[in-house]
UniProtKB/TrEMBL annotation:
Native source species: Paenibacillus agilis
Gene Ontology BP terms: threonine biosynthetic process
Name of this protein: Phosphotransferase
Molecular function GO labels: homoserine kinase activity
PANTHER family found in the cross-reference section: AMINOGLYCOSIDE PHOSPHOTRANSFERASE DOMAIN-CONTAINING PROTEIN, AMINOGLYCOSIDE PHOSPHOTRANSFERASE DOMAIN-CONTAINING PROTEIN-RELATED
Family from the record: Belongs to the pseudomonas-type ThrB family.
Domain (Aminoglycoside phosphotransferase): residue spans on this chain: 44-271
């Protein structure tokens, strides 16, 4: 029987398996997807092992996920929702079955999930502009509209609620000696618990729609990596996008650029779903939540002795912003 989502905790991926064991696991994955092990090319991954492979002149993605990160039912829920979106016209990387028809295949402590590789490539500077912003808003708006009427094909296919996030339940131990950061997180959680939850403002969201998780081909976006999908406020999906737009040095803190991005994004989004003023007013809190979760995730790498210079720079920057009580965005830019 699968464990409840509350039992799934964070873990150090790099300690989960030896290189020799991983080699054997990848060989099994190749077998169940009907390709030679030599076809599996490692392409990275922060919390899962990710490979690319080719079959019948098409490219696919394999994720190898430890059972401590996701249960089988949570992964089946991801598959169900992705394919639901695809069937309703959303450009996403569909899930693919193994040669014996399984969408989630278990070997030892790991699960295999396969996906079509998105067409195109990462967003280039030539793509980054008003047309893309409108299209991104259009896709997210359509996803949220579909989420409002979505029911899993099997009632046991359930993703977690936002408050089940392990990093939000264990940060005090990890952040010992950082009282300002702990207080910051506690205040954000207090605000979140006070927000109203309705069928119109809350449902399944992607929760990681930054520009690293969609490709562009001939000006068309294909969205992928639904690993973080969960039940949350729809506007939080927008906040996550906005966070990386600002902090990812895509438009920086330039007020005019932020206004342009938001105006274009909202134009696309509101073709499919109304954005209420009170939803927009909550974006600053959701921006703080994303910043806090990022800080925890990088702090976990620090605790495991895996901190890169880039990660250290991120920690220092976020800690400084928190201690100085800096706002991530001027709320007036949201209206």
């Amino acid at each position: 029987m699968e464990r409840d989502v509350n039992e799934v905790r964070g873990y150090n991926m790099d300690d989960a398996v030896s290189s020799e064991q991983l080699h054997d696991i990848v060989a099994i994955a190749a077998l169940v997807f009907g390709v030679a092990p030599s076809e599996m090319i490692e392409i990275g991954g922060f919390e899962s092992y990710v490979y690319e492979f080719s079959k019948d002149k098409k490219s696919f993605i394999l994720k190898i996920i430890h059972r401590e990160r996701r249960t089988k039912l949570m992964l089946l829920a991801e598959v169900d929702y992705i394919n639901y979106l695809a069937e309703h016209g959303i450009s996403v990387s569909r899930c693919i079955p193994t040669i014996d028809g399984q969408y989630v295949y278990k070997v030892g402590q790991f699960y295999f999930v396969g996906y079509e590789k998105a067409k195109g490539d990462k967003v280039g500077e030539e793509d980054w502009g008003p047309d893309l912003f409108v299209q991104l808003g259009d896709i997210v708006g359509r996803m949220h509209r579909l989420a409002e009427v979505y029911s899993p094909s099997d009632p046991s296919y359930v993703r977690s609620q936002w408050y089940d996030e392990p990093r939000l339940n264990h940060f005090s131990e990890l952040l010992q000696g950082q009282p300002a950061v702990i207080t910051y997180g506690q205040k954000v959680l207090e605000q979140l618990h006070a927000f109203p939850v309705t069928s119109q403002n809350y449902g399944l969201i992607h929760y990681d729609c930054h520009r690293g998780n969609y490709f562009v081909a001939d000006g068309q976006i294909t969205l992928f990596d639904f690993d973080d999908m969960q039940y949350n406020w729809y506007v939080n999906d927008i906040a996550v996008i906005l966070y990386y737009v600002i902090k990812g040095n895509q438009i920086g803190q330039n007020s005019q650029n932020i206004r342009e991005f938001l105006a274009c994004f909202v134009e696309g989004y509101t073709r499919h779903r109304t954005l209420e003023r009170e939803e927009l007013e909550r974006i600053p809190t959701f921006l703080k939540l994303r910043q806090f979760l990022l800080y925890i995730a990088v702090s976990e790498k620090q605790a495991a002795g895996q901190l890169t210079e880039r990660m250290k720079s991120t920690l220092d920057r976020i800690r400084g912003e928190i201690e100085r009580n800096e706002e991530i965005i001027d709320v007036n830019l949201l209206f």
